[in-house]
């Protein structure tokens, strides 16, 4: 009787060990698969590596005939590079600004032609908005944008499929780095949003096209850029950030 009880006990222990081993193997394999896909294969990015003190400034919706020029002047003063996600319809209007951006070493990203909500668009519209803007930029500056940011950060499976088929990553922004500067929330608010949580690899979202009589973004940049330089951050374009992040 005692032997039978011992055997049952042994069997019970073995079963527990087997279950534990199974759980451990599942835990071990599952996160690895996720990390690999984030690091190398994912089509949508919102930040870069945390292992280097790098940061990417991005400006959406331009070019704007006044604010983009003022921002370019500030970037030139500090000798730093940024990425401009331009609208095809604004690039058509201000081609000289696109040329200057390229000449001064900034990256041009595609932000659609007319700022449509791609989540509500047909596949045909998505393709047209993307390709038309690629062609406009090429006709102005002889380069094709290598990064795409959907308006409002809105995308779906169709957007990923269409944009990825051109081998172009979809680039959003680091979620806590949205100062809503397009709404002119005040210089202090923009500065605070950017600086209070800043971390390595952040993609910071600004707007060079503001539909207002003044832009708080320009004044905020005069505080943000020297502060980030003081903290030791290196400014890189989005493509540079993605390349650095892939290599590590
Ligand atoms: Zn936009």
Describe the structure.
The protein is α/β, with parallel strands linked by helices and 248 residues long. The protein has 2 domains: 1-41; 45-247, TIM Barrel, CATH 3.20.20. Helices cover 52% and strands 10% of the residues. It has helices at 2-41, 67-78, 88-93, 95-103, 123-141, 157-164, 187-196, 216-230, 238-247; strands at 44-45, 54-60, 83-86, 107-110, 170-171, 203-207, 234-235. The strands form 2 sheets. Strands 2, 3, 4, 6 and 7 form a 5-stranded parallel beta sheet that branches. Helix 2 packs parallel to helix 8. The longest helix has 40 residues, at 2-41. The model is unreliable at 26-40 (pLDDT under 50). The structure holds zinc ion. Residues 60-61, 111, 115, 151 line the site of zinc ion.
């Amino acid at each position: 009787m005692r032997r039978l009880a011992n055997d049952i006990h042994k069997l019970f222990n073995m079963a527990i060990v087997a279950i534990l081993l199974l759980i451990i193997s599942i835990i071990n394999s599952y996160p690895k698969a996720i990390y690999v896909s984030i690091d190398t294969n994912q089509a949508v990015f919102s930040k870069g590596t945390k292992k280097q003190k790098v940061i990417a400034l991005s400006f959406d919706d331009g070019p704007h005939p006044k604010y983009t020029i003022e921002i370019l002047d500030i970037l030139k003063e500090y000798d730093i590079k940024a990425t401009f996600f331009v609208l095809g319809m604004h690039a058509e209007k201000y081609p000289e600004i696109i040329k200057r951006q390229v000449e001064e070493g900034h990256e041009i990203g595609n932000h659609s032609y007319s700022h449509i909500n791609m989540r509500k668009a047909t596949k045909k519209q998505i393709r047209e908005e993307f390709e038309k803007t690629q062609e406009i930029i090429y006709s102005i500056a002889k380069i094709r944008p290598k990064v795409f940011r959907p308006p409002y950060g809105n995308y779906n499976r169709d957007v990923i499929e269409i944009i990825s088929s051109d081998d172009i990553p979809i680039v959003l922004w680091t979620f806590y780095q949205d100062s809503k500067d397009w709404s002119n929330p005040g210089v202090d608010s923009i500065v605070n949003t950017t600086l209070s949580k800043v971390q390595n690899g952040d993609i910071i979202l600004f707007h060079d096209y503001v539909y207002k009589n003044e832009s708080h973004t320009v004044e905020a940049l005069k505080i943000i850029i020297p502060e980030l330089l003081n903290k030791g951050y290196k400014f890189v374009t989005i493509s540079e950030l993605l390349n650095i992040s892939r290599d590590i």
